[in-house]
Design brief:
This protein is α+β, with helices and mostly antiparallel strands. It contains 14 helices and 7 strands. The termini are far apart.
Length: 349
């Protein structure tokens, strides 16, 4: 290994030993299942948010078999509020795929792990490093930031050419030994010192060799995503309210918010007919509430909730994929964040 790469790893391992994190709930195990669940929950989510979710998830699903045996709905309920629900669905699908293997065990190499639903190359490497000490490189968002700054790599890391370069660098820097301490060090440095805004360069073990610091480009690296104006999608959400409960509809398993509970979407000009025919409800009054805006990766959503007070309900109305939810218990429903926010506001109305 070239000397600079060796020094990079040694510096990081020594820093991690004294200044890194050692007490996170998923660090005291070599169980690939526990490591995997933590890695998935930590994607796009802060450690402090993940800790209580992780504890509840482990209490309910202590091993891959119990997760595989669960209904998807149960998994999503435990995920409610954590966001990025595709992670929960993929976790469940991957648990089923693992349980169906001849030995019902985890594939033991990063390459094989990355073929399971929701396990990308970096996550597979992290599991293989922590569970089996495999010499595999990680490259999540935090690591991309550390490497782009330390080595002065220009270009948006989401672009293929830049990402390829970063992967090659991550691979080159990987030490022969102490790969666990090194990998944890990269994670810890990105999460605690080399943060996206206001990094703590004065405490960083790379302060003397960091290219971004040397050239005063810490705020410019990594290069930001080129700005794009995302299209706006408008929708009307039907908020059918019957005393202390509201009607939610389960979305189809594929697509936006797949499998989650949301308010039915509706065309306003067929409001009453649809309420009667599809939901068995007659309406006493209707009024629009303040619009809700939410950004997705490729578009923005602007939803106008239409609060409709129900005067009577036809008991034989179709009920598949529909559910009347008590507002006082709505936090337990597997629903996306904007729906949860509106449910909380409705309780206060
Ligand atoms: S010196 Fe600053 S910018 Fe460079 S790696 Fe350390 S914390 Fe990040």
């Amino acid at each position: 290994m070239p000397k600079p790469a060796e020094d990079f790893a040694k510096t990081l391992v020594a820093w991690q030993r004294h200044h890194g994190r050692h007490d996170l709930p998923w660090q005291a195990t070599r169980d690939p299942y526990r490591i995997w669940v933590s890695e998935i929950m930590l994607q796009q989510t802060q450690v402090a948010t993940v800790i209580p979710y992780y504890a509840r998830f482990m209490a309910r699903f202590p091993d891959v078999r119990s997760l595989a045996a669960a209904r998807e709905e149960e998994v999503l309920e435990l995920w409610a509020g954590l966001g990025y629900y595709a992670r929960g669905r993929n976790l469940h699908a991957a648990a089923r795929a693992i349980a169906a293997r001849p030995d019902a065990g985890f594939p033991r190499r990063a390459n094989a792990l990355s073929e399971l639903p929701g396990i990308g190359r970096s996550t597979a490497a992290a599991i293989a490093v922590f569970a089996w000490n495999e010499r595999a490189a990680i490259l999540d968002g935090n690591v991309k930031r550390v490497l782009a700054r330390c080595f002065g790599i220009e270009g948006f890391p989401g672009e293929r050419a830049v990402e390829t370069r970063l992967w090659a660098l991550a691979q080159e820097l990987l030490p022969r030994r102490a790969v666990r301490g090194y990998t944890q060090g990269l994670m810890d440095l990105g999460a605690t010192l080399c943060t996206r805004t206001r990094p703590h360069c004065e405490r960083c073990p790379y302060a003397g060799r960091c290219e971004a610091k040397r050239t005063k480009r810490v705020d410019e690296l990594p290069t930001r995503r080129p700005r794009k104006i995302h299209p706006l999608r408008e929708a009307t959400w039907l908020v059918l309210r019957d005393a202390g409960r509201v009607l939610l509809q389960r979305r189809p398993p594929q697509g936006l918010w797949g499998g989650l509970w949301t308010f039915p979407e509706i065309e306003r000009d067929v409001l009453r007919a649809r309420c009667r025919n599809d939901f068995g409800c007659e309406l006493r009054s209707t009024r629009p509430l303040a619009p809700i805006e939410h950004s997705f990766t490729h578009f923005r959503l602007r939803a106008v909730p239409l609060l409709c007070i129900v005067s009577s309900i036809e008991p034989r109305a179709r009920s598949s994929g529909l559910r009347w939810v008590e507002l006082g218990r709505a936090t337990a429903v597997a629903a996306p964040a904007p729906v949860h926010r509106l449910l909380a506001e409705l309780s206060a109305l």
